[in-house]
Design a protein that fits this description.
Pfam families: ABC_tran. The protein is α/β, with parallel strands linked by helices. The protein has helices at 42-49, 72-77, 94-104, 109-122, 127-130, 140-152, 170-187, 198-204, 222-227, 232-254, and strands spanning 2-9, 19-26, 31-35, 57-62, 65-66, 79-83, 158-162, 190-195, 207-212, 215-220. The protein is built from ten helices and ten strands. Strands 6-7-8-3-9-10 form a six-stranded mixed β-sheet, with helices on both faces. A four-stranded antiparallel β-sheet has the order 2-1-4-5, with helices on one face.
Length: 270
């Protein structure tokens, strides 16, 4: 579905490289996570897929087509894109936000209305209740759900997600991660997800590409990376979820179950 061959990106004429000589393939229906710290090249790699950033060298193909030969606007309209800032149009209703790309593609109004209703229901925001609301009337999690619906509106085969849940509170983030997993099962869409959170990558991805210094340090399934990190950089990422798991076990071991009901002297009603 997605192929990157010897792809590089320099912003200063070749003096330094944000991304250097990446070779990568993403299968149809796969969720691949690009994982790394700030400045590792993961977001640049993502943006080169829909030509928001043009590669300095190399070839990118999506569904067999060399993206260099595709009009950038046409390419972006055919690829779903969800990012951390959500980016809803503040002056448009929720329905109008979701309808933006289909309208630009010349869909009929009846098809647009049907698709908007379908997608809002899909992301848990029934059209009857939310279609006419404005973005400022929704919570952060609800706005991100609208962002996902908008990205799916034109029935893309590929969706790009750049730290989509990074700005959400932990409870909402957990809920959105579970919902994304369910959406994948229902739609079979190919997803490339940028994240700095190893736990999120382990939960969501079929494979994880750990990036450092503009290169792919390690590529493998979650179980492969946990069993064999392969480098100190990958090991440092793997240790975070392992330490969290160990902490949960340790805290569980410290719990002391109360013996009976507290008496009035122990804090009951005075």
């Amino acid at each position: 579905m997605i192929q990157l061959q010897n792809v590089s990106k320099s912003y200063d004429g070749g003096k330094t490289y944000a991304v250097r000589e990446i070779d990568l393939e993403v299968a149809e229906g796969e969720l691949l996570a690009l994982l790394g710290t700030s400045g590792c090249g993961k977001t640049t790699t993502l943006k080169m897929l829909n030509r928001l950033v043009e590669p300095t060298a190399g070839t990118i193909r999506i569904d067999g087509r060399d993206t260099a030969g595709v009009d950038p606007v046409e390419l972006r309209r055919s690829i779903g894109y969800v990012f951390q800032g959500i980016g809803l149009f503040p002056h448009l209703s929720i329905a109008a936000n979701v309808a933006a790309v289909p309208r630009l593609l010349g869909w009929s109004q009846s098809d647009i209305d049907k698709r908007v209703d379908e997608l809002l229901d899909l992301v848990g925001l029934p059209a009857s209740k939310y279609a006419r609301r404005m973005p400022h009337e929704l919570s952060g999690g609800q706005r991100q759900r609208v962002g996902v619906a908008r990205a799916l509106a034109a029935r893309p085969q590929v969706m790009l997600m750049d730290e989509p849940f990074g700005a959400l509170d932990p409870v909402t983030r957990d809920s959105m991660q579970k919902e994304l997993t369910e959406l994948r099962k229902r739609l079979g869409i190919t997803i490339v997800l940028v994240t700095h959170d190893m736990t999120e990558a382990l939960l969501l991805a079929d494979r994880i590409a750990v990036m450092s210094g503009g290169k792919i340090e390690r590529l493998g399934t979650p179980s492969e990376l946990l069993r064999n990190p392969g480098s100190d950089i990958v090991e440092s990422f793997v240790q975070t979820p392992l330490n969290q798991a160990n902490l949960i076990e340790e805290l569980a071991g410290r719990r002391v179950e109360p013996k009976g009901e507290p008496s009035a002297e122990q804090g009951g009603a005075a």
